[in-house]
Amino acid sequence: MRLLVQRSGKASCTVDGKITGKIDSGLVVLVGFTEGDNSETIKYLVKKLLNLRIFPDSNDVMNLSILDYGGSILSISQFTLYADTSKGNRPSYVKALSGDKSSKLYDEFNEELRKSIEVETGIFGAEMEISITNIGPTTIMLER
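User: That's the sequence. What structure does it adopt?
Assistant: Structure tokens below.
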């Protein structure tokens, strides 16, 4: 499982001209799954994500988590996080988990997050337009 985490101001997801999720501040999290990912993997990375200290404290030092700082999460499914270009210029996605399995894990991931924080989402498998105001910019990869 891979999470690409971006500290953001306003962010939104649009599908077919309609906004499916938007936040005013917090984190945009791109989520990808691979073989072997399960509930344990999800719980581990949710805990790591919620405790990741990438928001500024009163001294402008990245020392606060999303839970300390406030805000919400825009969660977007992203199988291309498992792109492999080692054999040429056309990416291979064989390490990305199949759609049915990924969809279930993505739903479970979002439900686990919602136990602690407000979560907005895109639509799994849809062609999405993502608008992100990346603050910092701060972009962190988490994986297990």
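Residues 21 and 121 are 5 Å apart (CA to CA).
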